[in-house]
Amino acid sequence: MKKLVLIGVLFVAAVLGWATQVNVTLKSDTNVMVYGPIDHYLAPNDPGWGTSKYAAVVAWPHPLWPYIANSAAVWISDSYMITGDPVNDSWRKFEATLKIPCVAYNVGVGSATVNSDNAEEVYLNGVLIGSDGNVQGPIGGYEWYTERYYPLLNLAAGLNKLEFIVRNYAGDPDDVDNPTGLIFQVTGLTYEIPEVVWRPPIINKKFVLQNGSTLPIKFSLYLQDGTQVTGIKNVELRVYKGTCNELTEPPVATWYLGEGVNNLRSDPNGLHYIANFHTRNYSLEVGAMYSAVVFDGCTQEPLGCISFLLSRKGNRSNK
Description:
The protein is built from no helices and 24 strands. By secondary structure, the chain is mainly beta.
């Protein structure tokens, strides 16, 4: 079976933990996707780009192309060296994703530092936030030596799409090489993820879950300053076989937010969440470890995990 490893999940018991401060790292590298090249301009959401996309590659760095200071960002393109047919313009679309959890608090205002050969338009969730050079219309302004800063405002919870339309101007007919590329870095984007604090009975001393019984799994969310998060946030709860260090996919059970007894629900004041784990409804292994994991409902990032032992009926200890 496939194993799921939770990286960076804090194991929280009865005492309050500290929320996690996240610094978003996003830069031009081989994780960025590319569409094209094509021989005419298209808006980022135009179906003419097609559905075929592929990973960017590190581009041949023209000696005059500057790098972004104090950054690991690299110049990227659809191939290492763009060769041949230098008399025609070409356009490429680059696509990257910024994740903002539904439960995120204190989201900072980030910005993107961008440069391209020869001109770019920058879009956030399909909305143009700025450009440098003439991406449309006549050639004008060879802007490959200038960095521009684009504020990333109005980020939404979930997956935010950052897109770049890059135009490579036609080159000298006597020169078979006409390189193009993009370099960018996102800075200043931070947010706070609340900490999961588990509630009794799952945190009782020497807690062991009895097979055939029903376990009310309860938890709350707290900010870094110790303030409890109130109101319903978009989270999910899953139970896996295994410990928090190594979970077995698929999950044994999953609960989504709802109002029924079979859903993950919140108390009337929005102070804690509860889901009923009816062990009799599942084929569980007596003597095995199981883990409850809370996930953000927008990004599916794990927020907290706790493990417990499943015993035979009559061997339960909750003290």
